Amino acid sequence: MKEIWKISRGFLFLVVTCFCLTACGVVGTTYMVAKGAVTSTYEVTKFAGKTVYKVGKFTYGAVMAPHTWPLTQKDIESIDGMAPREAIKKGKVKMSPYVVKGHRYVPMSLEKAKTYRQQGLASWYGFETYHQKNGHMTANGEAFDPNGLNAAHKYLPLPTFVRVKNLENNRQIIVRVNDRGPFVDDRIIDLSAGAARKLGFYKKGTARVLVETVEPKAG
Fold it and tell me: String of b and e for 25-61 (b: at least 16 CB within 10 Å)?
């Protein structure tokens, strides 16, 4: 009986190991900050419908949201000339023009995004996501994580990694841009609540920041 149990345990371990190896893929690269010399490990792990990104000491989870969930930016009228959910289903969101309250926004090219660097006002968004049954969907179709290190930007391709530095206290983090916004004239980026806490302006609501692209490169 003991021998049978040992064989069963060994077989079960083998099955689980094989499943993990086939369902979970890891890609190791390095990232470089545009016009900088910062280098660190960049990893992507996919498992059971979830993608986990690790850039240096920061971790980001990405899960596609049900299409029945409301958009975090409810004012988006169309993306690439289609209804937002249709464009998301077809994967037409990365650099596609989109319309908000009658105004057409045209995202920058990948080449231009590589050298993006801007100072301005940051805010945080998603307070309503703490007080509802289901979740919200970002403009690229992912489940919005209010406690994650995510962000919304009007013009960067989706997704893009950027380093955000709070110029008021010198704290800095890397966030993953996966949404559109903020649609307020004096603000350049909207951060998740989790990112705002890391940067030390959650209670204040806004902060003066420096935003620059972090470009993953094989290396």
Answer: eeeeeebbbeeeeeeeebebeeeeeeebbbbbebebb
pLDDT tens per residue across span 49-108: 899 988 888 999 999 999 999 999 999 999 999 999 999 999 999 999 999 999 999 999
Residue 151's contacts (CB-CB under 8 Å, 6 or more residues apart) are 162, 164, 175, 176, 177, 178, 179, 189, 190, 191, 192, 195
What is the reported pTM? 0.81
Fill in the DSSP letter of residue 184.
S
Helix (H) or strand (E) holding 209: strand 206-217
In terms of domains, do 83 and 149 share one? yes
Q: Is there a domain that residue 70 lies in?
A: no
Cα separation, 189 vs 119, in Å, equals 10
Determine contact, residues 192/150, Cβ cutoff 8 Å: yes
User: What is the average pLDDT score of the chain?
Assistant: 83
Segments forming the whole domain that contains residue 20: 2-63
The answer, yes or no, to whether residue 44 has pLDDT greater than 90, is: no
What's the total number of domains in the chain? Answer: 2
The alpha helices in the chain, defined as continuous H runs, are: 2-23, 84-89, 110-113, 193-199
> Same domain for 163 and 81?
yes
- In the block, residue with structure tokens 């989109």: 98
138 inside domain:
yes
Residues 84 and 189 in one domain: yes
